[in-house]
Amino acid sequence: MKTSYSWLQEYLDIQVSPKDLAEKIERSSVEVDSVTRPSDGMKKIVVGEIKSLAPHPDSDHLKVCQVDVGEDELSQIVCGAPNVQSGKKVIVALPGSRIGGNVKIKRSKMRGVTSNGMICALDEIGFEKDVVPKEWADGIYFLADDAKVGEPVFPYLGMDDYLIDVDVTPNRGDMLSIYGVARDLGAIYDQTPKLNHPKVEEVATPAAGKVSIDANKDLAPIYKMRIVENVKIQPSPRWLQIKLWNAGVRPINNVVDVTNYILLKYGQPLHAFDYGKVSGSTIHARYAQKGEKLTTLDEEEHELNEKDIVIADDQKPIALAGVMGGLNSEIDDQTTTVAIESAVFTPTLIRKTAQRHNLHTSASQHFERGVDRGGVEEAVDAAAQMMHELAGGDILKGIVTGASYDVKDEIVNVTLSRINHVLGTDLSLDQVTDIFKRLGFGVKLAGETYTVSVPSTRWDIHITADLLEEVARIYGYDEIPSTLPSGPTTVGALTEKQKLIRDSRHVLESLGLNQAISYALTTEDKANQFMMRESSETHLSWPMTADHTTLRMNLISGLLDDVAYNNARRVKDVALYEQGRVFYKDSADQVRPSEHEHIAGAVSGQLVVDPLKNAKNNSIDFYQLKGIVEKYLENLAIKGDVTFVATDRYPEMHPGRTADIMIHGHYVGFIGQVHPTIAEAYKINQTYVFELDLDALIEMPKDMDQFEPISKYPVITRDVALLIDKTVTNAQVLAQIQKKGGAYLKSVELFDIYDGKNLPNGKQSLAYTLTYQNPNATLTDDEVNQAFEKVQKTLTSELGAEIR
Amino acid sequence: MTLRDQLEKIRQERKQDIKDVVDLKKLDSLRVELLGKKGPITQALRGMRDLPADERPTFGQFANTVRDELQSAIETRRDELKKAMLNKQLASEKIDVTLPGKPVAQGQPHVIQQIVDQIEDLFIGMGYQVLSGPEVEEDKYNFEMMNLPKDHPARDMQDTFYITKEILMRTQTSPMQARTLEKHDFSKGPLKMISPGVVYRRDTDDPTHSHQFHQVEGIVIDKHITMADLKGTLELIAHELFGNRFNIRLRPSYFPFTEPSVEADITCFNCGGKGCAVCKYTGWIEVLGAGMVHPNVLEMAGVDSEVYGGFAFGLGPDRFAMLKYGVDDIRNFYLNDVRFLTQFSKKG
């Protein structure tokens, strides 16, 4: 809400600058979005008086005006506005001036005639088009006749005021009015704001004879009305228009403007009906009936349902209660009798109605946050009195009440020790009493217990904690000391699971992969790729975009999106890993998915990029990524052997270059090359990926590290080269060697693979180094030879190997 | 010429020869020539028996001196030549130390992870547990138990991805407050925990909005936890993450789950508090929300709010990272451009 600095000054003695005031509001009450002055950025715009005008020789619509701008000679200005008139005081932008939109005005020639500046309309000097009064929408603006020629126009239009735009939190609806802000500032600056209360000058005719009200108390706990007769509709006086347009409200006429003014001042939304357009004499506040329609003041037609609250006459809805009036009862130039509604509607119902019809008005926003239930009558009184004063209306006697109740102060208790206990302060009884009094609260003190009576103007305060906040903010958060929690010591440490997750990240980073964080919401298609198990999808019921509709069931697809983003930007070398959750559902009926930690990687291009030309190309391949996964799993020290089992069961993976990863026979994930057709679909280069069930890895038993003495006895090695069928895998050879290796075989290492020229078709050459060691004695050549012999034999007999 | 004169001559002349030798091989032949069995000194010593007996000792002494001198001259020269050779070799081995080092593979933690880890470590050091909760939450924990009943207007502040009416993508990490409060056994001591994680909002992605981002929730509940403790803790976070020259100011705010509620601003990164366009000329930048846990939240979780109370705060690592490193578009964090990810290796 744009709060006028000068309007506040009508009630308070403010000694600080608007900027400092705004800072004070921000530190003590609510956030301030900005402090602005409508004249900011504008200069040399003055009052001018049109002394005479003549038609432009070369134009049908332009006029050549002689304007008194307070200089020795009249200034000639060409003006095209249809309403330009001799004898009027107007807004003149002098040569060298700056007007709205940062436009600079120069002396110029318009179709050959010199023009020393420009006569301006309101929207040309920074007014939003939607606040300019209709009568000034299509022409230049006439200032008051007593405006002094040559002086800046800003004070005459309220443009020299400062507007503090406060961003009111949902609990502080009271700050959505000038009176509310004035009260709060009163508390902050220890002043009593001089708020005036209306005296209503009524005529003898009772209002009750004109109207009766039938209000559903569930919808409108308070519903009151006044009738004002014989109003003369005309534009509001300038002071009122200024207050409205500075608040961003378009002045309309002296009746509608009054209701808007009262809303700004008191925070009580009012609505004025043209009594002459109401059928019958009963006003109903009721639920809408199905099928009823209402065209609101913005000329939009709404189909109503049974949950909407309407104000209706005997025949039809005449307003969407608390949101917007109906066009069918609008105040117009012919209106003579006005029914002013001042009511309280149930916040949740208003909120829903506003949402349903996507009609969020100033009134609905106020009702949603609540209004001062004790101020309903004062608001309607003030409005009626103003209509009397500004529109010459006769106020009928009495307020007609359809629903009401006795609004009482809220009684809340708090002790001084509680205040100091929670705030960490050392406030005295007097200090706290003073704060409550400044806030306008009633205070009774017994011992150290305060019984605080909170007036209806602060309807947000109900419990002790609310009072604590009041004390804290008025005392000042800056004054509260800084300490750290004391009390019993607690142990802070990561859990085993958290440590393993962190370690996992560190290991993969040390192996060259960068951590990525991708979107967990993806397309249904991608959510279903690279699946490690069967699962139903989890869909958003109302997604925002087609790209993010479904919860991921794999991490790889997100990483491939990342690879694609990089590839598209000519970043060819991408090495990423992600640690995060996937979401599984055992069946489509399961509502809430289970969440599982996974860890996955994707590498495309080179892991290590050596820019030197003679460095060899190290584009990622299966074995390089496998090395990373092996090293990672080795770091986790999971008990049991890690094996890689060829598989073609993933439709998104290369059928000949993919392996399931097993630990001690348990499936924990997979690794391999992304299928070329999938890579094409993602628009990525050749990419290798892996995904692991991190939860499973965390839960598997781990090897405990135990020192093993380093043997002082020498090792003996033997090399064996095999010519063997290509279908025989390294794993098979290793298994066979291990099986017959004997007690002293310490390790076997593949040191050469060859399947090139000079070999018979379908054959490959594999060469291994076997290392023997006896931890307790020196091995003899004989012992080793015997063992080695056995290995060679078994390889020949079991795997058909030819020893070379 | 006497023997002595001959020796004297050798001493004079050959010393210079030794000095003039330029390679080790020649030096070695010279050594053999001068000091070998057929060399002049050996010869001279052999000829000594022709001398009168009384001259022999003096001459012998003289011959030995000459031999020692030559020997030592050869040694010196040998050392010189060796050194020169080594220097020559070293000179030939000179490399361009400004050529690039051999690249090795090393990855980096995501910048948001760095911030989260930093926060975790800070709080672990102060005795907090780190807990993580489900990302797919129940309305009950995400809203209702956080004092946000179904029709609460503050729900409008958070646009929510619903899966069903009761199940949603958590919009905040706050539900972990409720979940932990429900479980915590206060007879075993205070509750001090932080809960980092991913949260989701129904937002259109743009430079300042992301439908997915991170939050770290913190809560401390005990018999005597104060607003002053909250202020001190928030100051500590600011100092840890940004440095000691950063200050915190608290402003009143509103969250349904805390009362009093505050928003914490930190000294503007850009201008250091003087006021600039980044901080809208206030010198301050809003970084987190906090407050004293609302009694309703405690009571709904079965905690006696008359006895126990404390503070809670929620901060956004994404926002912190944007402010700390001047990142101007939040989407950078989730697109994983390698050129972006690898910028944040420094822990400063």
UniProtKB/TrEMBL annotation, chain A:
Question: Where does it reside?
Answer: Cytoplasm
Name residues in a coiled coil: none
What's any GO biological process attached to this entry? phenylalanyl-tRNA aminoacylation
Q: Which residues form the TRNA-binding domain?
A: 39-154
Give the matching InterPro entries: aa-tRNA-synth_II/BPL/LPL, B3/B4_tRNA-bd, DNA-bd_dom_put_sf, Fdx_antiC-bd, Fdx_antiC-bd_sf, NA-bd_OB-fold, Phe-tRNA-ligase_IIc_bsu, Phe-tRNA-ligase_IIc_bsu_bact
Keywords (alphabetical) are:
Aminoacyl-tRNA synthetase, ATP-binding, Cytoplasm, Ligase, Magnesium, Metal-binding, Nucleotide-binding, Protein biosynthesis, RNA-binding, tRNA-binding
- List residues binding Mg(2+): D460, D466, E469, E470
Pfam families recorded = B3_4, B5, FDX-ACB, tRNA_bind, tRNA_synthFbeta
Source domain of life: Bacteria
Cofactor needs: Mg(2+)
Which EC number(s) are documented for this chain? 6.1.1.20
Question: Start and end of every FDX-ACB domain?
Answer: 711-804
Task: Give me the Gene Ontology terms describing cellular component.
Answer: phenylalanine-tRNA ligase complex
Residue ranges annotated for the B5 domain, each copy included:
407-482
Q: Which GO terms of the molecular function aspect are on file?
A: ATP binding; catalytic activity, acting on a protein; magnesium ion binding; phenylalanine-tRNA ligase activity; transferase activity; tRNA binding
Q: Which reaction does it catalyse?
A: tRNA(Phe) + L-phenylalanine + ATP = L-phenylalanyl-tRNA(Phe) + AMP + diphosphate + H(+)
Q: How is the cofactor bound?
A: Binds 2 magnesium ions per tetramer.
Assembly information from the UniProt record? Tetramer of two alpha and two beta subunits.
> Which family does the entry's similarity section mention?
Belongs to the phenylalanyl-tRNA synthetase beta subunit family. Type 1 subfamily.
The name under which this protein is listed is Phenylalanine--tRNA ligase beta subunit
Q: Which organism is it from?
A: Secundilactobacillus mixtipabuli
Query: Per UniProt, what is the name of the gene that codes for the protein in this document?
Result: pheT
TrEMBL record, chain B:
What InterPro entries does UniProt report for this protein, alphabetically? aa-tRNA-synth_II, aa-tRNA-synth_II/BPL/LPL, Phe-tRNA-synth_IIc_asu, Phe-tRNA_ligase_II_N, Phe_tRNA_ligase_alpha1_bac, Phenylalanyl-tRNA_Synthase, tRNA-bd_arm
UniProt xrefs under Gene3D superfamilies: Bira Bifunctional Protein, Domain 2 (3.30.930.10)
Annotated localization: Cytoplasm
Instruction: Look at the named UniProt entry and state the broad enzyme category this protein falls under.
Output: ligase
GO cellular component terms, A-Z: cytoplasm
Q: Which UniProt keywords apply?
A: Aminoacyl-tRNA synthetase, ATP-binding, Cytoplasm, Ligase, Magnesium, Metal-binding, Nucleotide-binding, Protein biosynthesis
Q: Which reaction does it catalyse?
A: tRNA(Phe) + L-phenylalanine + ATP = L-phenylalanyl-tRNA(Phe) + AMP + diphosphate + H(+)
- Where is Mg(2+) bound in this sequence? E259
Q: Does the keyword Protease apply?
A: no
Instruction: Kindly list the GO molecular function terms attached to this UniProt entry.
Output: ATP binding; catalytic activity, acting on a protein; magnesium ion binding; phenylalanine-tRNA ligase activity; transferase activity; tRNA binding
Q: What is its EC number?
A: 6.1.1.20
Provide the GO biological process annotations. Answer: phenylalanyl-tRNA aminoacylation
Cofactor details (free text):
Binds 2 magnesium ions per tetramer.
Pfam families assigned: Phe_tRNA-synt_N, tRNA-synt_2d
Q: Which residues form the Aminoacyl-transfer RNA synthetases class-II family profile domain?
A: 111-343
* Predominant location category: cytoplasm
Tell me the cofactors it needs.
Mg(2+)
What is its quaternary makeup? Tetramer of two alpha and two beta subunits.
What family is reported? Answer: Belongs to the class-II aminoacyl-tRNA synthetase family. Phe-tRNA synthetase alpha subunit type 1 subfamily.
> What name does this protein carry?
Phenylalanine--tRNA ligase alpha subunit
